[in-house]
Design brief:
Elements: H1 2-18, E1 29-33, E2 38-43, H2 49-57, E3 64-68, E4 73-77, E5 84-93
């Protein structure tokens, strides 16, 4: 019984943590770059698209983001540039209601 309660609590906590930005962030676009319209950039501690997505989600003026995997640079966009194929980049777009 204790294992079931622990698992349930862990599942709820993980679900809540992973859905912090899901209401306003679209899907992660692996292998897609959105070049241009850079408002700012930051080097992340690791090449994790969720970190870049979270950065964009925390900035009201961010409309899209791109993460260059090779150097962990996260670019926050002030508009939504057209997508292009690039295996070294992962991107995403903020969904506006």
């Amino acid at each position: 019984m204790k294992l079931r309660v622990l698992f349930g609590a862990t599942f709820v906590a993980m679900t809540m943590a992973s859905s912090v930005y899901s209401a306003e962030m679209g899907p992660i676009e692996f292998g897609i770059d959105r070049p241009g319209s850079d408002a700012s950039s930051i080097v992340l501690p690791r090449s994790d698209p969720n970190l870049c997505l979270a950065q964009c989600g925390s900035v009201p003026s961010c409309s899209a983001w791109s993460l260059r995997l090779a150097d962990r640079r996260c670019f926050l966009k002030n508009s939504v540039p057209a997508p292009t194929l690039n295996a070294d980049v992962t991107s995403g777009v903020k969904v506006r209601p």
